[in-house]
Structure prediction request, 569 residues.
Amino acid sequence: MITLEGLTKRYGATTAVDSLDLTISPGRVTGFLGPNGAGKSTTMRMILGLDSPSDGTALVDGRPYAEWPRPLTKVGALLDAKALHPRRSARGHLVAMARSNGVPVSRVDEVLSIVGLDAVTRKRAGQFSLGMGQRLGIAGALLGDPEVLMFDEPVNGLDPDGVRWVRELMRSLAAEGRTVFVSSHLMSEMQLTADQLVVIGRGRLIADAAVGDVIAGSSRTTIVVRVPDPAQLAVLRDRLTAEAERVETADERLVVTGVPAERVGDLAHALGVRLHELATERASLEEAYMELTADSVEYGVAVAS
Amino acid sequence: MSAAVITPRIIGGLPNAVRSEWTKLWTVRSSWLNLAAGVLLSTLLGMQYGWGLAYDNSHLGPGEVAEKQPIGHFGASVILIVQVVIAAFALLTVTSEYATGSIRSTLQWTPVRRYVVLAKAAVLAPVLFGYGVVVAALASVAGGLTAGSWADWEAAGFVTDLLSVGFYATAAGLFSAGIAWAVRSTAGTLTVAFLLLLVVPLMMGQSSLRALVWTSALLPGGAGQNYLTGATDPLSPVLSAVVLIAWAVGGLALGAGVLKRRDA
Prediction:
């Protein structure tokens, strides 16, 4: 479990992370989303003690990362796959890593085979492709068999097979009861991988909710109801206007936001309104995300209206 | 992932960090290349000094007397130049981490930052000592062979000279590694080490001004030269050794202080 309390990072006048309060729980994949410059990487770096917070605390199972005697057995993290000596072999890199935390060297060969790099263990890490580098980074994260895993953009540079492999790996790690905290820009991927979503913008928490709730809460998720009789349409519309966020009329259809389909169906039944169609049009996570972060895009592009 | 069983070999951040640094030192080629360069350079310089001695002794000016030289002195002379290579060996273990970004991995593995500085120093110290002894031995033997009959192969003095060079290489190397944590770039650290170990003491030590002689004796390079030549003015060899230890410890303390405060 990762606990952030009032976590803040300031660089001069700029506040990169602004009093973040957050609990990332075990047993599920928590997606960490936000526009570029929102403070995702800085937050992850503070959890690992690479950057020190200006204020607040970041704890892993109740203690700062640096206070765990063998931290790699507590938290495995892939923040930057390029943070290694390019002329050291993949195996040499992992052996040095294992020794730093008293992990048996036999575990190195295990994780190399888990990530599918067994054939290139002698190859220098600097000659790895982007995707192989990511796999080596993931091998490092798994090395200490940790309870908590953090990945910053893990599918960056992976081919479709690799993307799918990472997705299944995350799901299985969470299923084993581990805490999995993963940032990504690929919303379609997050929609498939994550259970819980944490969205930040300009260093502040925007949302911390289950993926389903984020999507359901979007104004892009709508109920479409078709009523052939114009009089009945008007009755239902007036009734729905009282409790929905928004009701729009288009020909013989009502497009309703903020009321679940069950409620619309029950109301129609109670009012004796004859329906020809009742459907939910779900927003994609991408649409829900764009709506959430619309106000906090750091490097926004003006859209011609 | 299958449930992996991981049993710790050693509990303790510092011993683990030392093992990791030992592995890191020998799994990059630059360490080996540096050793090869140091060995080659010191052998060649030793030969040159031996020939130089033989030439001087067989081409004496009026009033000059030919003198035999203990072979250990070749080693002590050669280290004056080769120390730059040895300093590079030590400081590269730090600056290469900043150049490649691997420092972020190192600090993730060992988040207690003073352990990282201590572990590197603990690995470097015996290696630097051995490096200094080997380099001095090669230079001494090479110089002794080329000097021919002018070489004095007395064993006890030779061993003392070798151990002295080993001590100096350790102190100069640890000092260089210490300041590398503060400077971070290879070129910058090499410049500082080159100035303090070689250039400034060499310039000031020749001065007739006492203040400059003293300044030189208190800088690491000057203290090293005085220590290795057994000079007693202005400081005794023991005090010169104390000055060297102070620079090594001070450099490492500075490095640890800077690393602790700075974001990786």
Q: What stands out?
A: Chain B has one domain: 13-58+65-261.
